[in-house]
Amino acid sequence: MLQIHKELEEASWICGKGLVGTIRLIVLPARAAGRDRAMTLLFVLAIRELGSSLFLYTSDTMVMRAAARLLEAAMSASRRRSAWCRPCCSPC
After folding, report:
1. Alpha helices in the chain (DSSP H)
2. Are 44 and 31 in contact (CB under 8 A)?
3. The model's pTM
4. Phi and psi at residue 48, to the nearest 5°
């Protein structure tokens, strides 16, 4: 945004365009090339990660979020069990 010259915006205002018109006609077209390059780079990175995920996938594979939820449930069950136990020599 800082690389767009202030004179371009001022010329748009002198020609009668408001803030929205200036953004639509001056700022957005100037940023389009950078936006397109960034989206292309992100797409390439995502496709590369997708390829490695597909290569490593098996029928026994579990998604990390599901594995984290199972671990969280196991830990909370362990905490509940230990909260009800009274201290003694035998394990609960």
Report:
1. 6-14, 19-22, 28-56, 64-84
2. no
3. 0.44
4. -65, -40
